[in-house]
Give the backbone structure.
Amino acid sequence: MTSMDRNERPAFRRRFGLHFGLIVVCAIVLLPPLWVLRTSFVPEQLSYSNELMPAFTTDNYSALLSSRFGQSYLNSLIVALGSVLLALPFAATTGYAFARFRTGGRWARFAVLATQMLPPVALVLPTFTLFRSLELSNSLTGLIIVYAALNLPFLTWILMGFFEGIPVDLEWAAMTDGATAWGAFWRIVLPVSMPGIAAAGVLGFILAWNEFLFALVLSGPKTATIPVALAALQTSNGVQIAKVSAGVVLAILPLVVASRFIQRFIVQGLTFGSVK
Amino acid sequence: MASIELDRVSKLYGNGNYGVHEVDLTIPDGEFVIFLGPSGCGKSTTLRMIAGLESISSGDLRIGGKSVANVAPRDRNVAVVFQSYALYPHMSVRQNMAFGLKMRGTDAAVIDAKIADAANLLGLQNLLGRKPAALSGGQRQRVALGRAIVREPAAFLLDEPLSNLDAQLRAEMRLELVKLHRRLGRTIVHVTHDQVEAMTMGDRICIMRDGRLIQAGRPLEVYADPVNTFVARFLATPPMNLIPATLQAAPGEGLSVLTDSGAVLAVPARHRNAYGERAGRRVILGVRAEDFHESPDKPDWQKIAVRVVAVEALGAENVLIGQIAGHATGRDDAHPAGGDKPLEIAARLSRYFTAPVGSMVELYIDPLPMHLFDPETELVIARPSLMGATR
């Protein structure tokens, strides 16, 4: 046995052990979604079959999309996008104020998180009462406002972090160049922090897209969002697991796309080239 | 007219510390002034107060004779070049340079003409379409300068603009800045911690420490006549050697400095009047590295024995680091009152000087340029300046 063999053996064992461990972990993570994907293409009556792919059909998808689920999909898109577009301008200005000025002192930064610290169920009933008197329950507008409000603290904090990472020299340069403080924010800070704003927007979109409790309480049959519509597939005749699976696959599609965007934006350097 | 007057200007922070303390300075129109000092001495803060980027806690600041304490940065007509260059990363070089003019509503044709002029001056013609990320450090630095130049401000405020460049480029840019100053004739305030920049670029050096302006004067004046041990050490590489000693009366009317090692230096006759009343008191003897010599070229140069610790060969010269025999403790910036460190001196000798480490060598001190400092206040004991004097 050469000395090389002796050296390689433990290395091989280590590598084998590492890869085996990784395969097990991947299986634990990936099997449930893969099983959902599989079930979404299997006829309802065969969905609990032990076979890997007893039959292939796209009926679950076509049935879902021709039902109210299609409407819910659109509702979710409107609500998630609308709430992000409503929340971002407030979050950007608030985050910038916290990042650059002594606005409200240190405690104000934490105070904006107050709503995030309460269990959502404690907020949902007062919101419902309020929205009913404002005639905003059972409307997409109501949901947009609620999600914007719920996401605002979180988006503010994300953007505050981004703004704090932008060298203040850039704003100083703009201000000596003739810009006002607002002008420096609008013309320099905002364009430079676009990746951060996009990332925050995508995260806000995901949160709104997945939200269930407020949607359940505040929406009606025509304004249901995807999580509510998915829950509705649990009927008195039992859970239509194949349709639920198809619904889940459809529901996570935008999130897969969104997470790709997030990666790109977060990985992208924020201010490369501006300094040093 | 863009004279800049700082009238007891202070910056007081919330924690009660002064960033800048009662700085009094008048910078005449067209002067190239260097603010020099170690990190945290308040020089950049002072610059930012001139630019209006930091508020003034007390005192007054006048640009062109008008108080600007409450004037926004954009209305002060000064341009700042930052250490980080602070180029707008989402804009091309052309857009970066045009930004300030656009903000002031300048006509597009005028903007184009000014950018073309500045690009010509700085050699940026081929880079105008590029984004800052696609530029080298030196190019970014020039774009930052160009952005300042196109605006034709009353004064340029440069915050360590050369510190991110490599040594060769820095030397080139030093010269470029000096030429630029001659050409534009505008007031320039240049902040640096590099004493070579300070000595070579400015009309005047202002040395700061702990938020205070310690000394202001022409570079060679400050070098020749430092007001205290801090300036003496800061404005040279290697710094001035500070040797604990006692001033004593010598036979006749003479005075001599007795170092703690027992070496005796006769005080030149020219300094006797100034130092006479200090006879018998402790002093710190200050000798610049270049005032040590390998051989006694003049009869009044005085011998001192030094143990060689290291010889740094710099090419054009050799710097000897040595210990003065008999000195147990030395003074330096870290041990202002003398510490456990053996007293080390640095001597700037010819490039032909060699000596084995650990050996004893004899050096000769030229006593004429020496300084004596008060060991308690660290202030120089005044003597007539040698500036312009002949030996």
Remarks:
- Chain A has two domains: 3-59, 62-267.
